[in-house]
Amino acid sequence: MAGVSTATVSRALSGHPSVSKTTQERIRALAREHGVRPNQLARNLRLRSTGAIALAMPLGHARTQHLTDPFFLSLLGFLADLLVDRGYDILLSRVLPENDEWLDRLVDSGRVDGVLLVGQSDQYDTIERVAARYAPLVVWGVNRPGQRHLTIGSDNIRGGGIAATHLLGLGRQRLLFLGDPAPPEFAERLAGFRDAAGATAVEVLSCEMDPDAVHAAVRARLAAGTAPDAIFAASDVAAMSALRALTEAGLDVPGDVAVIGYDDVTLAAHTSPPLTTIRQDLVTGTRLMVETLLRRIAGETATSAIVPPELIVRASA
User: Fold this and answer.
1) Which residue range or ranges hold the HTH lacI-type domain (predicted)?
2) Which of 23, 170, 179, 198 pairs with 122 at a CA distance of 20 to 30 A?
């Protein structure tokens, strides 16, 4: 119909500069008129590209965690917007690892050009092993000396230190860390909190990061003895559950107990009282994740990066 070869039609539909603009427009008009569309799968095979990126959240340590968690929703939303703006489709996966092959199956599936992992959970060793053979893999998480896999993440040790310094400056002495200390990011927040607390003892109330579980743990702790005068929660969601339990126990925040969260999710400014928290700069962090992944996909070198946290002071502490 166009009076040109099949190859010319293919090049015209892909916008190849070897075909004049006039011919491209004429062929595209014919394609629209007759419902002709390029075979995307065939194009991907020819280009050795899927045009898709996997966004995966491994939940080895917290199987009850959901994608609806405000922090994960914000981070995934920023990543999705950045990838779509760059022309990529997204394969979203919430992974409950049954063995150490889950990441191998993902990177070897042939369905994606690269993988972004949100968190390391208890899967650090698996991520390290796969990163040794698969370059386009970038993780939101902690960075350890000699680490193979690339990470972008908050300086969690510094964030924990900022929280302790602020609470000590308010004259608080009975400090409690609230949350599961097992995941690498939470472990670093606790380590930084303890280091900055110095001689001041830090009690650890370990619990699953499900809001109901946190709420129950705080209620039980308050019923068991003297309340702490300050709580540093491993996440804003945990801090919000603590606020509810403290209010139900008749304690004033911050008069009786000061509370600091971590993340600065949107809801943190709207709790009662508004939540003091350690902000993770997700705008910068997600941009670095995508840029780093695209460099690895292109075969270029890239490095990990740490994003500084920031104390956001509100009424809870």
Assistant:
1) 1-47
2) 198
